[in-house]
Amino acid sequence: MKLEIIILAAGQGTRMRSALPKVLHPLAGKPLLAHVIETAKKLEPTAIHVVYGHGGDLVRERIADPQVQWVEQAKQLGTGHAVEQAMPAVDDNSTVIVLYGDVPLIRAETLQTLLQQGEAGLGLLTVLLPDPTGYGRIIRDEAGQVKAIIEHKDATEQQRQIKEGNTGILSCPGSRLRRWLKSLDNSNAQGEFYLTDVIALAVNDGVNVQASVIADVHEVAGVNDRLQLADLERNYQKRCADALMRSGATLIDPARFDQRGSVTVGQDVVIDVGVVFEGDVILGDRVRIGANCLLRNVRISDDVTIEPMSLIEEAEIGKQCSIGPFARIRPGTQLAEKAKVGNFVEVKNSMIGQGSKVNHLAYVGDTTMGNDVNIGAGTITCNYDGANKHRTVIGDRVFVGSDTQLVAPVTISNDATIGAGSTITRDTPAGELTLSRSKQVTISGWKRPVKIKGNKAK
Ligand code: UD1
Ligand code: CA
Questions:
Q1: Angle formed by the axes of helices 32-42 and 108-120, to 10°?
Q2: pLDDT of amino acid 115
Q3: CB-based pocket (< 6 A), ligand 1
C-alpha cells in the first residue's frame, strides 16, 4: 500500500521567545523539522506534506527539500484543520501517517509498527505520564478498547485522572481520514477543529483502533521552549554516543560528546571529553582524539593521534599522522602517512608529504610539500599578495630553518636547506643552502645608556 506522511508545522512556538520559527531551531545542528523529514523518508513514502504557517517562507527556504510538498495553513484553526489542508493532495489509496515538526526524535521503527496498524484500521501512539496536564486523554472501555480522545480542557475531573495521554501521532487510510475530517466541528473548549475527534468517529464506524504506549517518552516529546529543546538535544546525543560505543569506540565520557552529522568509526577508537563532530566524519582503527577537538567533514586514517584543542575541517589525514595540540587544519588539506602538524600550526589547502613535519608555530597555505620535509618554527608561506593567492612548492627532504618566509609563488627544490630567518622570494636550487640574512656585526666597546639624575622619563 502507498504511504503519505503529513507533518504539522504551522504553530507559532511562542514559548521559544525567538524570531526564528520553532521548527527551524537546531537540534544536533539541524532544524527540528529536518529531523522529522529525515525520519519520514526512511519509510519511503510516496509524498511528504508539510503544513506550514508562521514564518512559512523562511521555513520553506531553509528546508529546501525537493521531496517535500508544502501546504499553507493561513489560520491555525486546530490540528484537524491543519491535516485537512493537506488532504486535497493525498491519494484515497494511501495510508496516512501524521507527524509533528516539533517532535524530532520519533524513530522509523516505531512508525513501521504504527503504519501496519493504520493499514488495518487506525493506529495511535500514546504515552504514560505521571503528570499528563495539557495532553488529550485516552478513553478506553472496560475491555481496554479505545473509545475516544478527550482534550485536557474539555475533560471532566475524573477523565483528567487518566495517565495515558495522546501523542498526536497516528496512522489510518487516506479515504477514511478525508471523510472523518469533513465531519469535524469546533464546538469545544478551544473552539478548534481537533484531529483527536477522528478517534471517536473511527470507533463509530467500527474501525479497529489500536493504541500502543510508547516505551521511550523522548520519541514523542515535543519542543515548546528552549529547556525542552536542550533536554532532547542531550537525549539525541546519548543515542549517538550509545551507537558509537556499541560499534566499538571508547568515549571517555558519553555525556560530554556532541555529534552533529554522521560518524563512522573503526576498531578501538578513543574519544576524550568535549569532542564535537560535524558533517560527515570517518575515523579509522585506533584513532585517538584528545579533549576539546572539533572535526568537521574529515576522513582520518588508522593510528592517527589528534592532541587536544585541535580544529580540523574538510581534510584527509593519512595513517599514523599526529596533529596538535592547538592545531588548525583548514579545508582542502591532505596529510600523507606519518606527517606531523604540531602546536599552533595552521595548514590550509595544502598537501603535506609522507613523514614531513611542521612542528611548531607555522602557517602553511596553498602549499604542495614533498616527503620527509622539516619546517622550522615560525615559518610562514606568504601565499597572498593582497590581491591573489599563489602556491608554494616544496620538494622532498627540504629543511626550512626557523622564522623563514617563503613568498609565493616559489619553489624549493629537493634536498634544499633554507637558513633560519630568511625571506625567500626566488626559487631555490636542489641540494644547496640558500639564505637571505643581513650579516651579523658586533660593535665592540659599545656602552648602554645610563640614566641622568633629575631626568624624568615621560
Ligand atoms: C495536541 C493534541 C493533544 C495531544 C498533544 C500532544 C489535538 C486537538 N490535541 O494538543 O491530544 O496530547 O497535542 O502534544 O490535536 N498545529 C498546526 N496547526 C494548527 C494547530 C496545531 O500546524 O492549527 C500543529 C502545531 O504546530 C503543533 C501540533 O500541531 O506542532 C500540535 O498543536 P498544539 O496546539 O501544540 O496541540 P496541543 O494543544 O498541545
Ligand atoms: Ca503541544
A1: 60
A2: 98
A3: 8-11, 51, 73, 76-79, 81-82, 100-102, 135-136, 149, 151, 165-168, 194-196, 222
Residue 335 near residue 353, CB atoms below 8 Å: no
Residues known to be catalytic: 360
| Amino acid 380: pLDDT | 98
Mean pLDDT, range 421-433, rounded to an integer: 98
Q: 292-299: which pairs have CB atoms within 8 A and are 24 or more residues apart?
A: 293/324, 297/261
Distances (CA, A) of 230 to 36, 38, 236, 240: 17, 20, 10, 15
Q: Whole-prediction pTM value?
A: 0.93
Q: In this structure, which amino acid lies at residue 265?
A: V
d(CA 317, ligand 2 centre) in Å: 46
Quick one: which ligand is closest to 165's CA?
A: 1
> Does residue 458 have a pLDDT over 70?
no
Q: Residue 305: name the closest of 294, 289, 327, 281 by CA.
A: 289
Among 15, 49, 79, 180, the mutation site with the greatest number of ligand 1 atoms within 8 A of its Cβ is 79
17 torsion bin: left (phi>0), alpha (psi -120 to 50), beta (else)? left
Pairing mode of beta strands 122-128, 30-31 = unpaired
Query: How remote is the CA of residue 261 from the centroid of ligand 1, in Å?
Result: 29
Nearest CA to ligand 1 atom 26: 11
User: 79 CA to middle of ligand 1, Å?
Assistant: 5
Model confidence over 10-37: pLDDT tens digits?
988 899 999 999 999 999 999 999 999 9
Q: What's the gap in Å between 20 CA and the centre of ligand 2?
A: 18
Atom of ligand 1 at shortest range from CA of 192: 8
CB 82 within 8 A of CB 181: no
pLDDT per position as a tens digit, 110-152: 999 999 999 999 999 999 999 999 999 999 999 999 999 999 9
Radius of gyration of the chain (CA): 32
Residue entry with cell 564535537: 276
